[in-house]
Amino acid sequence: MDKNLADNKEDSLTELANLATIKMSHAYQHYDESCGLSQYTSIILYELLTHRQMAQKELVYRSGIPKQSINKGMHQLEDAGYLTLTPSPDDKRVKFCKLTTKGQTYAKEKIAPLVEIEERVIATFGQAKARQAVELISEWADLLQTEIAKSTN
């Protein structure tokens, strides 16, 4: 955490959490913009680089990005020849996406440097501390999402 944030005793814990989340989001947004990627395209490439194939529903669930945005990104990447969409043999409504050879090269070019940055941050942080931070951030995000959904319904 930014030392200036941590040292300011006048800030509430909610404000500090909000600011930390915003800073992290802006860091990823800056990276995506520097690569000429939208957030949803970046997430699709990241997930498909680290997993052989995924269904659209799984991409939506894992990322929290709306289905329409994931669908748009999948079709943009498909049109560019970076991924293929294959219907599930069990349910034709389910489409699996997988990077093509061209898509794997593109994903490695765009996403591998981000993974390397994240690995450096983890190394600086330490494995145990990084794992704990990820677990806490994930739990925070899930609880926050649930509470916001309850308050906006």
Describe the fold and architecture.
The protein has 153 residues and is mostly helical. It contains seven helices and three strands; from the N terminus they run H-H-H-E-H-H-E-E-H-H. The radius of gyration is 18 Å and the shape is globular.
Structure summary:
Helices cover 73% and strands 8% of the residues. The protein is mainly alpha-helical and 153 residues long.
Tally of alpha and pi helices: 7
How much beta, percentage-wise? 5-15%
Rg, Cα atoms, Å? 18 Å
Helix/strand-derived category reads mainly alpha
Helix/strand order: HHHEHHEEHH
Largest sheet: 3 strands, antiparallel
Overall number of strands: 3
Task: Name the overall outline.
Answer: globular
Strand order of the largest sheet: 1-3-2
Return residue spans where pLDDT drops below 50 for at least 5 consecutive residues.
Answer: none
Question: Strands, helices and their partners?
Answer:
Blueprint: H1 3-7, H2 13-34, H3 39-50, E1 54-55, H4 56-63, H5 67-79, E2 83-87, E3 95-99, H6 101-125, H7 127-152
Antiparallel strand pairs: 1-3, 2-3
Core attributes:
mainly alpha; 153 residues; 73% helix; 8% strand; 3-stranded antiparallel sheet; 3 strands
